[in-house]
Design goal:
Helix content is about 35%, strand content about 25%. By secondary structure, the protein is an alpha/beta fold. It folds into three domains: about 180 residues, Alpha-D-Glucose-1,6-Bisphosphate, Chain A, domain 3 (3-Layer(aba) Sandwich), CATH 3.40.120.10; about 220 residues, Alpha-D-Glucose-1,6-Bisphosphate, subunit A, domain 3 (Alpha-D-Glucose-1,6-Bisphosphate, Chain A, domain 3, 3-Layer(aba) Sandwich), CATH 3.40.120.10; about 130 residues, TATA-Binding Protein (2-Layer Sandwich). The strands form six sheets. The chain has a seven-stranded mixed β-sheet, with helices on both faces. It has a seven-stranded antiparallel β-sheet with strand order 20-21-24-25-26-19-27. It has a five-stranded mixed β-sheet with strand order 11-10-12-13-14, sandwiched between helices. Helix 2 packs across helix 3, helix 2 packs across helix 5 and helix 10 packs parallel to helix 11. The chain starts with a strand and ends with a strand. The structure holds 1-O-phosphono-alpha-D-glucopyranose and zinc ion. 1-O-phosphono-alpha-D-glucopyranose binds next to loops. The site of zinc ion has 7 residues, from loops.
Length: about 550
């Protein structure tokens, strides 16, 4: 047996985790020592008592396998007692979160760049989740980052190529490595949250028809097991369920643009009662009905409204949370239910404390993320099961559900304008300019609506009191409408400015517009007051969703 090697290295200056871990081009990760430095820094951030058991898995994108071999070598050399690895190195992000929780692990390493494309010239990512299964909070990511800036050496135990077939177990020095099923534990968890007998009756008999697009990404095996094996959905309704390293050459982001095939089918005679898609690592979801798209913010609000249809929530929702840019639709449902609605910064990690403290049981983001207190990540397949349950229990169509919701609570016309490919200093200048001009902007109005205030969002975590400042600039109108500006924290090269637009409409006869169209003028106003054209050269957003 070889012995543990101590490898001399030098810090890389660009290993600061963003909104969701460290994301870079594959080629950046392939540089000698790059991944190794980061993994050693994760280990160094663990307390001695936190080195008993870790979970490792990824979305199967290009470089997943190589990365797992490297990670195992470092974990073994650092004396981690037990490592659970997903079969073939595959685990969806919510499945990692679940495994950490089910096995009482000290944490987990998730390999994914989520919805970003995969392949030798595309993206890769690595993220650490803590013992509750949640993405590490800022205090921990800061510790990891600090360590990446001072690291001088890492430990490595050379291992033969580790065969990751399910059921295999190994003992390397003091470390036990177990290869576990990617799907079993997650599927079992779902059966404790939903009424599978009722869902199976409805789905297998075609009373509620579903189609699901896994976008050649990680949810393929989960969808086959849960929707086909367990609920009896015909295979013809499962699309792109064979995962591939480059996601079939596509962009595994479940939205109108990238889940275009599903979108077209749901807008045609091939539509089913429910249509859904999930992203690269299985945490995002897109929900559609016949000829209907459900905005993620509305989806969150409707799940809260109909939480009694979901066995997991029958004991009461207690509280809900949304990220700040997410529309206020769920706030109105929470008010009607008499429960609190928390507003957190963008990024799932901010929900962790609220969930752990039992203050909320359902949370979501406008970026196609929704989940409950069963894991500490957003969960795409789970969101589909929520909607399926709502359709089965209410007997209503997606369209009817939306219309009833809007009639009762008003409609948040919501969309997001992204300005991609900006030079970072120019994007920064927009954010600085907004704050510098806040008083002048606050004196303006849009379509006769006065602005109540312009501010920079600061979050004080109600559980641990930690403060997160500079989480986006908000233009808040007196009537509740909003414009929010923030810079993306998940990009791998240039900067992206996100502009979130929300206009709330109460009048029944005004509820049938297309959200993009409805917000077009507000988008122009947002563009102009922030001087985006002058400061960045971008004359219009590159993506509107
Ligand atoms: C984006 C989304 C955010 C989500 C994150 C990870 O981050 O906006 O809601 O949590 O991806 O999926 P951003 O690029 O805006 O920093
Ligand atoms: Zn994702």
């Amino acid at each position: 047996m070889e012995t543990i090697q101590t490898i001399q290295t030098r810090p890389f200056t660009d290993q600061k985790p963003g909104t969701s871990g460290l994301r870079k081009k594959v080629r950046v990760f392939q540089q000698p020592h790059y991944l190794q430095n980061f993994v050693q820094s994760i280990v160094d951030a663990l307390p001695e008592s936190g080195r008993q058991r870790l979970v490792v898995g990824g979305d199967g994108r290009f470089y997943n396998r190589e990365a797992i071999q490297i990670i195992l070598e470092i974990l073994v050399a650092n004396g981690i007692r037990e490592v659970l690895v997903g079969e073939g190195g595959i685990l969806s992000t919510p499945a990692v979160s679940n495994l950490i929780r089910q096995t009482g692990a000290d944490g987990g390493i998730v390999l994914s760049a989520s919805h970003n494309p995969g392949g030798p010239d595309e993206d890769f990512g690595i993220k650490f989740n803590n013992a509750s299964g949640a993405p590490a909070p800022e205090s921990v990511t800061q510790k990891i980052f600090d360590s990446t800036r001072s690291i001088q050496q890492y430990r490595r135990m050379p291992l033969p190529p580790v065969d990751l077939s399910a059921g295999r177990s190994y003992r390397f020095l003091d470390t036990d490595v177990h290869v576990v099923s990617s799907v079993d534990d997650y599927a079992r968890l779902m059966t404790t949250l939903f009424d599978f007998d009722r869902l199976r009756d409805a789905v297998s008999q075609g009373r509620v028809n579903l189609q699901f697009d896994a976008m050649h990404a990680v949810t393929g095996p989960y969808a086959r097991r849960i929707f086909h094996d367990m609920l009896g959905l015909k295979p013809a309704f499962l699309h792109n369920v064979s995962p591939s390293e480059d996601f079939g050459g596509g962009h595994p982001d479940p939205n109108r643009v990238h889940a275009h095939d599903l979108w077209e089918r749901m807008m045609s005679a091939q539509a089913t009662d429910l249509g859904a898609a999930s992203d690269g690592d299985g945490d995002r979801n897109m929900i559609m009905g016949r000829n209907t798209f459900v905005s993620p913010s509305d989806s969150l609000a409707l799940i809260a409204e109909h939480s009694a249809c979901i066995p997991q929530f029958r004991s009461g929702l207690i509280g809900v949370a949304r990220s700040m840019p997410t529309s206020t639709a769920i706030d109105r449902v929470a008010a009607a239910l008499g429960i609190p609605c928390y507003e957190t910064p963008t990024g799932w990690k901010f929900f962790g404390n609220l969930l752990d403290a039992g203050k909320v049981r359902l949370c979501g983001e406008e970026s196609f993320g929704t989940s409950g207190d069963h894991v500490r990540e957003k969960d795409g397949v789970w969101a589909v099961l929520c909607w399926l349950s709502i359709l089965v229990e209410t007997g209503l169509s997606v369209q009817e559900l939306l219309q009833r919701h809007w009639a009762r609570f008003g409609r948040s016309y919501y969309c997001r304008h992204d300005y991609e490919g900006l030079a970072a200093p120019a994007a920064e200048a927009v954010m600085q300019g907004l704050l510098a001009d806040a008083d002048t902007i606050a004196r303006q109005s849009f379509a006769g609506n006065a602005i109540a205030k312009v501010d920079s969002f600061t979050y004080a975590d109600p559980v641990d009191g930690s403060i997160s400042a500079n989480q986006g600039v908000r233009i808040l109108f007196e009537n509740g409408n909003r414009i929010v500006y923030r810079l993306s924290g998940t990009g791998t090269d240039s900067a992206t400015l996100r502009v979130y637009l929300e206009q709330i409409e109460q009048r029944m006869d005004h509820l049938q517009h297309d959200a993009l169209e409805f917000n077009r003028e507000l988008g122009r106003f947002a563009h102009q007051v922030a001087q985006i054209g002058a400061l960045t050269g971008a004359q219009a957003p590159s993506v509107m969703t």
